[in-house]
Amino acid sequence: MASYYEILDVPRSASADDIKKAYRRKALQWHPDKNPDNKEFAEKKFKEVAEAYEVLSDKHKREIYDRYGREGLTGAGTGPSRAEAGSGGPGFTFTFRSPEEVFREFFGSGDPFAELFGEWTLEASEWLNFPLQACPISWEALR
């Protein structure tokens, strides 16, 4: 698996805002609902993106990751000491949340895809009642 920085396509010096913007872009790109033809691969990428954001957006987790890598977060390999981990345990063990939970927390409960399409996100029933008078092109111009 690529580094979290590579997954979000940001440099190691990325600011918190850069990481948020990158997560937003990548989460929308790899959301399984946006990739129905390649859902299994999209789910894998979506999970990686959520995991990367969850670590890089948290200052403490990011410091541990920068120092010890992914192994430092999962308790494998050479991880932080008790004092560095800030817990009473033998080291820091991080449990990743579901990618859907991270997505909901970031985007809220609304439709994150709606803003991509602006006011053109009408329901099918609304299109049936869409007034033709609202169209800027006259029928005569189409002939």
UniProtKB/TrEMBL annotation:
Pfam families, per the entry: DnaJ
Record keyword Oxidoreductase present: no
Gene3D superfamilies on file: DnaJ domain
CDD domains, alphabetized: DnaJ (cd06257)
Gene: DNAJB2_2
Domain J positions: 3-69
Lineage top rank: taxon: Eukaryota
Disordered as annotated region, ranges: 71-90
PROSITE patterns: DNAJ_1, DNAJ_2
SMART domains, alphabetized: DnaJ
Protein name per its UniProtKB record: DnaJ sub B member 2
Keywords on record: Chaperone
